[in-house]
Amino acid sequence: MFGKEGTGALILVVHDVEETRDGIEKLLQSSGYRVDPARDEREAISRVLREPPDLILVSLCGAEAYVIATAQHVRDGSGLPEDVPVVIFCADTLVEGTDLQIGMNVYLARPGNFDDLRALLARLLSQRPSQRSGRAYVSTE
Questions:
Q1: Averaged over 107-118, what is the pLDDT?
Q2: 137 found inside a domain
Q3: Is residue 138 part of a domain?
Q4: Span 86-106, pLDDT tens digits
Q5: CB 99: neighbour CB atoms within 10 A?
Q6: Strand 10-15 vs strand 34-38: parallel, antiparallel, or unpaired?
Q7: Domain assignment present for 116
Q8: How far apart are CA 97 and CA 38, in angstroms?
Q9: How many domains does the chain have?
Q10: Domain range spanning residue 59?
Q11: Overall average pLDDT of the 68-86 stretch
């Protein structure tokens, strides 16, 4: 599934479980975002090189350190600038409903529900100046 319908910001969703990735994609699309799904680091880098996203959302199975390293490899390996936010979703070390900046525009997040995630994405995207083709960002707050 490759759903780039819509006019909102492009979010690269990296998740290794297809059903979950599809669910995240549908929820984001219903909020007006365009979604580019990837199942692993290699596929994510390939997709970024084809069309750079406005934000990367990473939710992979595995140890938190591995997921953080993978997220950083996607941004670094594709040459994306540090102003592209990276959100590492479902960090078990955080209290539900919180997010924490851990690096240059890199955030751990454990939203309590989809509205929490949607608010975080809208906040991060609104802080980033649009650099491509006058793309308008969708804010759902």
A1: 87
A2: no
A3: no
A4: 999 866 777 888 888 888 888
A5: 21
A6: parallel
A7: yes
A8: 25
A9: 1
A10: 10-127
A11: 91
